[in-house]
Here is the input.
Amino acid sequence: MASYDNREGFIWMDGALVPWRDATTHVLSHALHYASSVFEGERCYNGKIFKGHEHSVRLLESGALLDMPIPWTAEQIDEAKDAVLKANNLTEAYVRAVAWRGAGEDMGVAARRNPVRLAIAAWEWGAYYGDAKTQGAKLDIAKWKRPSPETIPTAAKAAGLYMICTMSKHAAEEKGCSDALFFDWRGYVAEATGANVFFVKDGEVHTPVPDAILNGITRQTVIQMLHDMGITVHERHIMPDELSSFQQCWLTGTAAEVTPVGQIGEWHFQVGQLTRDVAAAYEKLVRS
Here is the structure.
């Protein structure tokens, strides 16, 4: 696979489609120095982005939380994503929209005079966790903690929040794991580096309350699916010592979709029937 900066195709950038290799930004862009950037990850199935408008709305909300108003409407962002898919002749794709403070008159912490820029790219991307999608992922326990919402806007899908994710995923991969599970600053189970987590106990589902983590769009979708299936869902604080009592586990996210988990640290889980049913139902839903 070619490097992401050296491919054929087109990327939508600040209102126009440009050749892939020309979609660049200056080294003194504010986002590169101060993490003033928000983004969305979306998947296109059979030519249609699943919940694309919801992702566009969340992008704008993330920008607002970072005091970085994005100068496009959700409808304009929707149209731009469709244009990118069409220009690149893609019907099965991952879509990445990213907004950031660019280079301008300010080069310090404050950046109100710098323009907010927006780019949208799309490419073919298979299962995020590879074979783990069917066999069950193996997760490490991250040494970092998800921070308090009093310290950072945890409801934003902001680039700066992923710094500890990158470090934790690198450490996990060095141990032969697919990903890492975070606890939060209070010690509760939080999420993986780019996915929400669900557990099954005696036919009921338990998942962390999103009071310090991103309330993922896929997470919300799966919870509604479970309700429709008549499955009881407990959104609550989960302590690490409870992990031994759960029989099944899975991750949800746009990239992860619904991925079963076979192991977290010393704890093991079955790739059970409910996990398989949820994964199958989600696959059917996104392609409906």
